[in-house]
Amino acid sequence: MNIMLQTAQDTIREAAKKLGYDEEKIQAILEVEAEHIFEVEAGGKKYPAYRVQHSSKRGPYKGGIRFHPDVSLDEVRALATLMTLKTAAVGLPLGGGKGGVVVDVRSLNHGEIEELSRAYARHLAPHIGSQKDIPAPDVNTNSQIIDWMIEEFEAQIGQADPGAFTGKSISRGGSEGREAATGRGGAIVLGEFLKSKKNDKKPLTVALQGFGNVGYFFAQTLRHMYPNLKLVAISNSKNTWVKTDGVDIGDHVGHIPRPENLADLAAVKPLPSDAIFGVKADILVLAALENAVNSKTMNQIGADILVELANGPITREAEKFLLGRQKIILPDVVANAGGVIVSCLEWQQNTSGEKWSEEKVNSELNDILVKATKEMILYSERNHRSLKQAAFELALERLQ
Ligand code: NAD
Questions:
Q1: Which listed residue (62, 86, 98, 168) is catalytic?
Q2: Which residue lies with its CA nearest to atom 30 of ligand 1?
Q3: pLDDT value at position 262?
Q4: Taken in order 273, 276, 278, 284, is the CA torsion positive or negative?
Q5: Domains in the chain, CATH or no CATH each
Q6: 334, CA 20 to 30 Å: which among 44, 58, 142, 345?
Q7: Cα 269 to middle of ligand 1, angstroms
């Protein structure tokens, strides 16, 4: 079993035991409802493809499709399982699923990527749809790929079903606010947590690992909505930049800048990428990749609060170590749920034939995340649990 699946199952098992579930009940939660294992062809070559449908207890399966050479059935199972917990943790009327194709997209041309995407949707057509399973983009898949998939899917079923996929382009029925949703949601969860600790008036410093889609929109949201949170360091896969009087990331319409191109960092000497862990800041936001904080890096963490914006950026060993040092971890299942929440709002707009403004989408996102964060904090305080344990136990109770 791969580490990610093991970690997901161990975390669920631990939460289920606290709730007093017996082994039979735990097994029923861990079991996937359906798996589709097939091959898709593009450019004359065949690639292994998967769709795992973990749970539809709360609504249609929901989850992204990943194109990556490291995709495996176990990884897709892990991500489908975690999606079930995530949608339940924030109270969405959706279940958990995930898809993937084992392929290095850099080896395909534009036409072959389209062929692959259409073949994937064609194969799954009988098993997906707005009331069954709603795929979305993930690593190396985007709105263009989803547009091809929904076109192919609708051709197969012979009718329109605009809510069958989310993450579509705006002209194809995608939602305003989707691109920024995960980073924005992370800032909302952090802001709500600090408010609950009566800490939102005091200026605090923030170090940010990862400056891609999630990290950039997190930083933009701090800039516009949380003036008391000062960004003092950012990093990417190559470097860390520290500026203790605050990093001004500026406004960039239509593109995400690279940190090395930010005017405010021009005079800052870059440090190695791993230097981000030891930066003197109150809060460390992990928006890069899984297992970033592990047995090798956990000793370097200076921050008191960590925010999991990537999926699983803290290993279980490092989590136990950090909790033992009284650090607070805002868990991924709530902190990075902004993306799936706006996906859910896209689906609701599509199935009701409505089109919401960005303001309305952002306001709904805010309401859902504030409620979920408050519930998680309350449960954690009442039952003496870490925030992650609280989020998992609340999710399991909603999956009864
Ligand atoms: P992205 O590819 O746009 O950006 C990733 C960033 O991480 C880049 O700045 C990259 O340079 C940096 N990075 C990579 N390796 C690093 C390292 N070793 N040290 C420091 N920085 C490193 O990806 P993204 O869409 O921003 O996603 C980031 C994470 O959030 C991923 O784990 C993803 O699975 C997760 N996530 C994304 C979404 C979403 O809506 N995009 C939703 C939920 C979770």
A1: 98
A2: 310
A3: 96
A4: negative
A5: 35-172 (3.40.50.10860), 175-400 (3.40.50.720)
A6: 142
A7: 23
